[in-house]
Task: inverse folding
């Protein structure tokens, strides 16, 4: 585990992003997995590699590490159909925050979001940057099945469900775009280091995009 | 050539040595819960060690062979018969077309492995055949095998030399050896003493994702939440309840609970054999010792390959 700091910041994220990219590009085939987090990168090695080699390799990578300042962020637009059956918990968020549904949508679409890393489950983006006035606690009882593409809020985080899965977040809308491509996951729509923007679409637009 | 599932077991899944290299996309490796036993099952039929087999959990099913095949069962011993005749474990055996292998309940640990010469053949997902059951990815349609499914067996001629085993394969699993976890210092001497001296019972809600334990509660002096970071295979997490969870093959790639310890590599195969109700104790070993134990395990497999064991 390589730790870059103790809190959550865009600066630490930049180092995590660069270092994990560097590790993923290594030709050394003893690396099993690379797990970026908010302020750390966990590297696991093949079981046939000795702990001396592990230490040596990590020190070598660390020595070679040069933070690549990202010139241009990959900007990704996420179209969302908010409310109604696609966002069954939008009313709950309104009730909790005391905001109208139009205001919730306005504040959710106004945000500048950063994908800190992909973790937890396949394709799940840890997204920072939500307007704190939208913070709403998790549901008391998680749903057994949350549809793929659901856009949700839990406490001061917002998220998108990349695959159908159980979940306890407040669903406020749904995107018609697949954000995660299991057959070619390196080329998914949403990736570490992306800047996300949510935009509100109509039901017609939702079906048009989904049909494509 | 294929295997028809006449009746499925509790959780029969296609497994290999795992889908490595995708944790940064949220995909944990998965793979055989007891990879040591799958490797042996493969060697018994002359497969490469990393060929895919069927992982059978707690109770097996009924499997019919659509053509002659060369198969083996290894791992924990289950009740098993071929057309009513007792079927031996840890030995390669020819089965004939239309013969039916019935696997009953386990008589030992949680899992056994069915290997067939040529390997179980399903379409690769990201260069691996393992099923990630929790996420519904890979293997046979991303799920456990069900009645009516037919899984293919690969080319019979691809195998290498077949091994025979004389050594006793039984592995005592009541002592799980560990080394420090990423937050081991969050737990004081008393917590550590409690953690390594008390007995823990494997809970019913355990799965390939995590082994949940119940027993003496462990508390951290610095709380039970960390800023989300990577979780390695075998990490022992202590959530707010104080009841340890061993992250297993289908673990979440990142998480926010402190990790007191990590199961050493050579003992991960024991974890794959834990079943609800099993009682275990944790024993701390040094990194050097962990390395020696891993080396010994690999030597054992090497000797098997040379038919010296």
Result:
């Amino acid at each position: 585990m390589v730790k870059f700091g103790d809190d959550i910041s865009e600066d630490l994220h930049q180092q995590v992003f660069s270092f994990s990219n560097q590790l993923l590009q290594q030709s050394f085939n003893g690396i099993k997995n690379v797990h970026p987090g908010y302020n750390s990168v966990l590297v696991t090695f093949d079981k046939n590699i000795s702990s001396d080699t592990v230490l040596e390799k990590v020190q070598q990578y660390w020595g070679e590490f040069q933070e690549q300042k990202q010139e241009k962020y990959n900007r990704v637009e996420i179209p969302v159909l908010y409310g109604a059956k696609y966002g069954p918990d939008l009313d709950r968020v309104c009730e909790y925050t005391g905001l109208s549904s139009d205001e919730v949508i306005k504040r959710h679409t106004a945000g500048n979001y950063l994908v800190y890393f992909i973790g937890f489950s396949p394709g799940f983006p840890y997204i920072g940057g939500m307007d704190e006035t939208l913070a709403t606690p998790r549901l008391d009882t998680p749903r057994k099945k949350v549809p793929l593409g659901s856009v949700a809020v839990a406490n001061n985080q917002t998220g998108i469900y990349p695959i159908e899965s159980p979940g306890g977040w407040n669903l406020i809308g749904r995107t018609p775009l697949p954000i995660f491509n299991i057959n070619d996951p390196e080329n998914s729509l949403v990736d570490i280091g992306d800047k996300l923007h949510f935009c509100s679409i109509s039901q017609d637009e939702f079906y048009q995009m989904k049909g494509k | 050539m294929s295997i028809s599932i006449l009746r499925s077991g509790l959780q029969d899944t296609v497994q290999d040595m795992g889908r490595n290299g995708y944790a940064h996309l949220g995909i944990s490796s998965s793979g055989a819960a007891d990879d040591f036993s799958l490797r042996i099952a493969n060697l018994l039929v002359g497969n490469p060690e990393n060929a895919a087999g069927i992982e059978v959990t707690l109770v097996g099913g009924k499997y019919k062979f659509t053509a002659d095949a060369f198969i083996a069962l290894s791992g924990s011993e289950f009740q098993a018969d071929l057309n009513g005749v007792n079927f031996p474990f840890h030995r390669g055996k020819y089965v004939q077309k239309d013969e039916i292998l019935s696997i009953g309940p386990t008589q030992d640990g949680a899992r056994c492995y069915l290997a067939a010469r040529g390997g179980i053949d399903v379409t690769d997902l990201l260069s691996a055949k393992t099923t990630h059951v929790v996420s519904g990815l890979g293997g046979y349609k991303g799920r456990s095998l069900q009645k009516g499914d037919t899984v293919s067996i690969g080319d019979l001629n691809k195998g290498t030399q077949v091994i025979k085993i004389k050594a006793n394969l039984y592995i005592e699993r009541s002592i799980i050896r560990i080394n420090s976890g990423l937050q081991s210092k969050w737990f004081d001497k008393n917590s550590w003493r409690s953690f390594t001296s008390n007995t823990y019972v494997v809970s019913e809600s355990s799965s390939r994702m995590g082994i949940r334990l119940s027993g003496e509660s462990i508390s951290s002096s610095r709380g039970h939440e960390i800023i989300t970071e990577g979780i390695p295979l075998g990490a022992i997490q202590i959530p707010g309840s104080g009841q340890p969870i061993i992250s297993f093959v289908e673990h979440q790639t990142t998480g926010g609970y402190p990790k007191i310890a990590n199961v050493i590599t050579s003992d991960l195969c024991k974890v794959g054999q834990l079943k609800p109700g099993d009682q275990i104790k944790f024993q701390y070993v040094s990194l050097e010792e962990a390395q020696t134990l891993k080396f010994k395990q690999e030597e054992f497999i090497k000797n098997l390959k040379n038919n010296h064991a």
